Amino acid sequence: MAYYELIKNFDRVRDYMREFYLYGFKSRSEYTQRSARSYDDERRRVESWLGDYMRFRQTREGKNVFLSIDSRVSRHNPLYAAWKTKSFTDGDITLHFILFDILHDPDTAMTAGEISGETDAYLAGFPEPKMFDESTIRKKLKEYADEGIILRERRGKSIYYRRAADCPNAGSEILDFFSETAPCGVIGSFLLDKTEPHDDPFAFKHHYITDAMYSEAVCALFGAMEEKRTVTMRVIQRRKERMTEREAVPLRIRISVQSGRQYLLAYVPRLGRISAFRTDNILSVKPGEVCGQFEEHRRTLERMLPHLWGISMPESADQPPEHIEFTVAYGEKERHIHSRLEREKRCGTVERTGAGSSRFSADVYDTAEMLPWIRTFICRITRFECSNAETEARFRDDLRAMYRAYGLEGGEDE
User: Fold this and answer.
1) CATH for 102-163?
2) Over 80: is that where the pLDDT of 123 sits?
3) Same fold flag, 102-163 and 322-405
4) How many angstroms separate the CA atoms of 53 and 66, rounded?
5) Which has fewest Cβ within 10 Å: 75, 101, 265, 399?
6) Mean pLDDT of the chain, nearest integer
7) Topology, domain 322-405
8) How much is the pLDDT for 89?
9) Model-level pTM?
């Protein structure tokens, strides 16, 4: 079987790209889920797109291939290349260019029968033309109409088709920024391919690129939200290596400012509450029926958002939030500490309590979710209180463990 750069099964390519980029420590013999030949084909395919980023190291187990991408050098996400290599048949690509040549003028409208006749005339000059029947042309026109690149309009009993007018370019700088920061940024990357070469003015200290591989699912979720539909999602549980199907009503996508990871907040009928799903665990999305309670679920989520620190969801929308607060002290030349609290407070509040101290407080559903962030202020915290006794005990136990590790027993009470 020959190797082809173009792909039909994106799931397989996504799995290998994930392994190469996120892990990159497996040798060829350690990829046991598929054959060694499959590994070689996918490795060469990824290398054809990302050859400049492919590296390898030799170990006792064999050669480990991995992707090494430095965001300081790569201003644009190189993983978008995978979305620009979908396979197609000879008939697909031939009919594509014929249709858009026939309908090149957005003011020209024709029926499927007229387009079929023009297609036959178009191909008549070739020695061995590839012919298309009218039903094939109708299916292709419907596919393009569903995508919005061809418009349908009914005139009496006939349906006319015409090319949609080109959208004005949003501007290269807008696309440079959108393509690297927004969900489904690959759309911006496709649009950038149509612009003139230019210097990219943006560089990103934290460049989160791996969600590019899950753009298709995220795009489908946004479409379901717009149409207020339920969806059936194919979700992978990576620890258990198990695939499940979940019916849900997608409500909002949240993005972590710390990791760049994207999460779907959705109402799950089986659970009777709103839950969170990592989008990189959602492999496919199938739209369902329109949800009559969509706006009600969205309003419930809106009431919950002021008490969400991250994506830890309460068992019920009526669950009371937990209160947490702490005070930090800082020196005359450390006023940036207060600025940092203001910048990172999310749903909390910050107030000055003195010339060199500030207090943070918040009412959230899960105070334990805040502990990793709170620990970054250790050695400055002078007071800490939490209505959840378990969270407070965990924080103080962590401090005692740190004191013991540094041989400072007894100092944890100060």
Assistant:
1) 1.10.10.10
2) yes
3) no
4) 8
5) 101
6) 87
7) Alpha-Beta Plaits (3.30.70)
8) 80
9) 0.81
Of 253, 251, 256, 214, give the one whose Cα is nearest residue 234: 214
At residue 56, the pLDDT reads: 77
CATH of domain 211-307: 2.30.30
- Report domain extents, the chain: 10-84, 102-163, 168-207, 211-307, 322-405
Single-letter amino acid code for the residue at 101: D
Nearest Cα to Cα of residue 130 among 88, 91, 89, 87? 91
Token pair 């934290």 is found at 206
